[in-house]
Specification:
Layout lengths: L5 E2 L10 H13 L9 H20 L5 E6 L2 H15 L6 E5 L4 H14 L2 E5 L9 H7 L4 E5 L13 H8 L6 E5 L16 E5 L10 E6 L13 H4 L7 H16 L1 H19 L6 E3 L9 E6 L4 H10 L2 E2 L15 H7 L2 H5 L1 E5 L6 H16 L4
Parallel strand pairs: 1-11, 3-4, 3-5, 5-6, 6-7
Antiparallel strand pairs: 2-8, 7-8, 9-10, 10-12
Helix pairs in contact: 1-8, 2-8, 3-4, 9-13
Amino acid sequence: MSSKNIYFDNASTTFIDESILESFNKAVKTYPGNPSSIHKYGQESSRIIEKSRDLILSSLCLNNHEVIFTSGATEANNLAIKGFALAHKTRGKHIIVSEVEHPSILETVRELERDFGYRVSYLHINAEGKVSLEELESLIEDDTFLVSIMAVNNEIGSVNNIEDIAKYLKQFPKIAFHVDAVQALGKIDINYKDVDMITITGHKIHGLVGSGCLIKRKGITIEAIINGGGQENNIRSGTYSLPLISTLALAISKAIKNQKTSFNLVKVVSDKLLDELTKMDDLLVINSNTKENPFVVNFSLKKHKASVVVEALSNRNIFVSSISACHSKGEPVSYVVKALKHDDVLAHNTIRVSLDTLNTVEEVKIFIKEFKEIIGGLKQ
């Protein structure tokens, strides 16, 4: 058993950065005012929120966009899809998404299809886990009004060519392009200037759970899905949490600033892990392209139950995941690996190791040792 906790589940959530926690505590103690209030405390809080918007946009080099603060990525994705559909009921009824989007996208478009008469087309993924621009071109119809494609897949780490897709879609003025950038920010270098709506959350980049935003191009109209006091220009009602907002901006700024260094540090650890796993091709199949994205190493067991191995690793203080933590606990299969491999056994027995700069090569060595011991003790 490992004498220390080895946390390899960073794609689910990251440990909070100490400087961000300190900033949060300072904000809680220093700025008690409701930003919507007109007194001095309220106005001070309001100014900090506006500075936070500016920091987020400048960090992403976006000068034609605006920020809507949310409780996280799920709300931001719902706001992008439902909010845009509600605001453009007469523009079209056809939506295109990839077949491996986050559940907060897939369940939202299914609701629109089921209850509101929209039609949804699903982009397939290729052997690298990516969508194809050629298939996207073939799916566009006269009444297509929205396309949503994630930048980096949360289960296998595949990276879509967002910049080329965005440039292509510019020729269709009535189509808005939404990107879930949750797993990309601070990891993969992507220029979002041609993207209409972008989803970000704080807890994937060492910020706080409960903080997130939808960044949208100026001129893109969306309707509120949460009504009340009319905050965020009547797009997202609810009392502002200045501590969450200010620390989200700080987390985004730090993640982008440190992106290259983080990539290089994680790649060393990821390369070691991949080198060890490829020696076990009789036991498993690698599902990830770690050269492009070293932060996620996903593999499927050929002969053993992943859930048993994940639990056994946890008992040895090593923490990985089998499928995305955003699935319900009753979900038995990875629909992402199913779409990638077209194999039920592999889809039912996936293990995701998601890395961060806090992880080390020594941790990988311990993981491999414990993993081999566990597998060796299991019946096939």
